[in-house]
Write a structure and sequence with these properties.
Blueprint (H helix, E strand, L loop, with lengths): L1 H12 L8 H6 L8 H9 L3 H7 L1 H23 L11 H25 L5
């Protein structure tokens, strides 16, 4: 994950072209991940606000992945015990799945409503 993150950062910082979204190209409707590449480009250039405006959920997930990589590096190098989570009950698992679907749908509605595809 860290290696792909570094390769992506280098690609974006060097200004190489990025692929177009097939769904947006065909239908004019952004997909749930549209804007993440442009958001990362803004993030790497120090513009956090613009990064979140392009795709708030995508950039939040990037920060989560970066935090996880940092956590894993500290645990492995320090030979520390890993955090453990208790298994979710059936109702909690269903609630978590519904919450994830709602968050992804809300983010997608935001992307469609904001129509940042031309930026």
């Amino acid at each position: 994950m860290a290696a792909s993150g570094l390769l992506t950062a280098g690609w974006l910082l060097l200004g190489f072209p990025t692929p177009l979204c097939p769904l947006h190209s065909l239908t004019g409707v952004p997909c749930p991940t549209c804007g993440i590449t442009r958001g990362l480009r803004c993030l790497f250039h120090g513009n956090l606000e613009a990064a979140f405006l392009f795709n708030p959920l995508g950039i939040a997930l990037v920060f989560g992945a970066a935090f996880y990589i940092l956590y894993a590096a500290v645990v492995v190098t320090g030979r520390l015990p890993r955090l453990r989570c208790e298994p979710l009950s059936k109702n909690d698992g269903i609630s978590l799945r519904i919450a994830v679907i709602i968050v992804v749908a809300a983010n997608w509605i935001y992307l469609i409503a904001s129509d940042r595809s031309l930026l």
